[in-house]
Amino acid sequence: MRKISKLSHLSEISLEGEVAKNIEQQLNILDESYGIERNIDADLGGYVLILETKDDVIEAKENIVKDIIPEYVDNIECEGGKQYCLSLFLLSSDYAVVVVATKELMDILVEE
């Protein structure tokens, strides 16, 4: 599981082009609304959470997005047919977690 709050962190991770582009858009929205230098653990705003394994999904489901229904789930089509999803979870009125995962992992995260 990777927690990303700054565009500079995004360049350190190897991601599919479309996935990186979508994450960059989300980080830009958070930066414009809440500031580039925000402290994601103490300030308003939020961050992007990349889930990479089933254990990441279980941890996120139990500790971060527990009992929260996503506002939306967008599909991200990548070259070679690999599918990812991006989902917005509002933890409070001014704090959000944008979760990015493969379609299979996202299906586990948002199952009822």
Describe the structure.
The structure is a single chain. By secondary structure, the protein is α+β, with helices and mostly antiparallel strands. The chain has one domain (2-109). 35% of the residues lie in helices and 29% in strands. The protein is built from four helices and five strands; from the N terminus they run βααβαβββα. It has helices at residues 7-10, 17-34, 54-63, 103-109, and strands at 2-4, 45-50, 72-77, 83-92, 95-102. Strands 1-2-5-4-3 form a five-stranded mixed β-sheet. Helix 3 (54-63) packs parallel to helix 4 (103-109). The two termini are 22 Å apart.
Outline of this structure?
By secondary structure, this protein is of the alpha+beta class.
Taken as a percent bin, the fraction of beta residues is 25-35%
Structural class: alpha+beta
Number of separate strands: 5
Q: How are the strands of the largest sheet arranged?
A: 1-2-5-4-3
Topology:
Blueprint: E1 2-4, H1 7-10, H2 17-34, E2 45-50, H3 54-63, E3 72-77, E4 83-92, E5 95-102, H4 103-109
Parallel strand pairs: 2-5
Antiparallel strand pairs: 1-2, 3-4, 4-5
Helix pairs in contact: 3-4
Primary descriptors:
112 residues, alpha+beta, 5-stranded mixed β-sheet, 4 helices, 35% helix, globular
